[in-house]
Amino acid sequence: MIHPYGLSKERVSSMKRNNSIDIMRGLVMILMPLDHIRDLLHVTSLSQSPTDLTTTTPALFFTRWITHLCAPTFVFLSGASAFLSIKAKNDRADTRRFLLSRGIWLVVLEFSIVNFGIWFDLNFNVLIFEVIAAIGVGFLILSTLLRFPPRIVGLIGGMIVTFHQLVSLLPVPENSLLKGLMSLFSPIAFPYGTGKLVLIAYPPVPWLGIMLIGYGAGYFFESTENGQRRIFLKIGLLLLGLFTALRVANLYGDPSRWSAQKTILYTFLSFINVTKYPPSLQFCLLFLGIMFLILSRVQGLKNRWTDRIGVYGKTPLFYFLVHWYLIHPLVFAMVFLQGFNRSDLVFGTNFGRPKMGSGVELWAIYLIWAVIVLTMYPLCRWYGGFKARHKEQTWLRYI
Questions:
Q1: Share of the chain above pLDDT 90, in %
Q2: Residue-wise pLDDT tens digits, 365-393
Q3: 71 Cβ partners below 8 Å, 6+ apart?
């Protein structure tokens, strides 16, 4: 695949592969399970937010904060990869058809294999709309915008990222159609059936903005290695500079304002504690800025470590699907080893954990994370080789 959960690498085989994309994607794939393991297994994950400065610790805060890099990177690179695919194939209609089918497939995956991997609940009492579905919906909408020049598409994305949070300021009457439309812009929960919920954790419009920016910026990846290095460095510094200016002003760009805390360190944590749900302007500036700085550093870099990181980056959807089914069984192993019984298990938003008393400490979260990442390496390497040997199998383009 050429992007986190999207276009297949077979579709761009005619162009020179951009290793910096594989490395960048591989890095965030390595980071990603850390947050999922913390969510499912950490002793405090069911009772407190790791970014709540009144209860968290710096170690727990940064464990959560660093993984904020993953989603915007995935979504941005999916847009950039759509641009690169069009340039390689020179067939806009074919790309449009693929984006449509790919988008539908990703939404189906989200509400089936991914949701079961997250909750392990056969009754599907909670359905959650997260990054896979957000990318899928983004592809559906991007497919309708391919007729416009990439810079116009990127400008639309920039406007969405800059101004989408203004929608949340509008007064919305209860039980109205507008209330439902708000789910396109802000997280919201809807009941369905009897005692069941649909959670819109990744409202599609703000994440669409990031994807469209990626599509508009796709031509940056066509530059020479030195050119990309310079461009990405300048963009990264510009975005971080804009973030700092907006954050210092504390006026616009994030609904959560920073404030002085009990120590300098906690004040710094408050300063960088930006809003992901939905991704605020300041969130996007900060983490896309970090992404561009990393891209500038890894551009043209090739050694045994980048080769290994790239193994993860070339098989992202496979990695994403499989890693849930490695992590979630550990929940049940943990609770039974801690003395709980089957009758103590609570599904839905508890992941199958008891209401209270289960979980492991942060050091164990990092140990489990290392084991999961190392376990995924031979699996990803095998699957990457399998795809390379069976390019004639069109279904492999979708995983």
A1: 77
A2: 999 999 999 999 999 999 999 888 887 77
A3: 131, 202, 207, 276, 279
